[in-house]
């Protein structure tokens, strides 16, 4: 689809690379496979959502997507407790971005809950929502995620890499409801890497600090 043209992702890549380098991680090279990103409507209810429901006692924002929007997470739950929490909150962050788009709310409290304040993860979420809303679009279809890998790092940080497929995920005109299929010649597969930080005041919560993405990455071919 045409919604993700990646200028925001390119701008945020440096922040992610610096974070990984500072933590002793290795930044992925080009084409290299990464082992393996006022009260709003979300504040009205604090019920847990998705896989996070029932998993802990964190007072999470409720995220309910329209019936024509589905996020399909085809990744295995890690055996480690911390790794599982990192992956679960990565999932909730991704859901919160799409929720902000469907709610047409660039200031949605949902993505703010799952991202570090003033971090590039929050900036990316806001830009994705804002640019889509200003274009007069929402989204429809199925967004698929696969091949997730979690790595715990020092200083209460963690990284997650995953593949994202948008072959069946499209823009939708808000006014007319018309689905826009986009450019069939453009790759709709992305390789993402996110860096998360464990929240200091909310035990067990991991928030996205930085995000980097590459369209058409060889590591995600066919996924």
Question: Which of globular, elongated, flat, extended, rod-shaped describes the shape?
Answer: globular
Which parts are unreliable, with pLDDT below 50 for 5 consecutive residues or more?
A: 1-48
* Main β-sheet description: 6 strands, mixed
Sketch the topology as an H/E string, one letter per element: HEHHHEEEEE
Report how far apart the termini are. Answer: 16 Å
**How many beta strands in the DSSP annotation?**
6
Spatial extent as radius of gyration: 16 Å
Number of helices: 4
**Percent of residues in beta strands?**
25-35%
- Average per-residue pLDDT, rounded, comes to 80
Can you summarize this structure?
This protein has helices spanning 7-22, 81-102, 109-113, 120-134; strands spanning 69-74, 137-153, 157-173, 179-180, 189-198, 206-215. The protein is of the alpha+beta class and 223 residues long. Strands 1, 2, 3, 4, 5 and 6 form a six-stranded mixed β-sheet that branches.
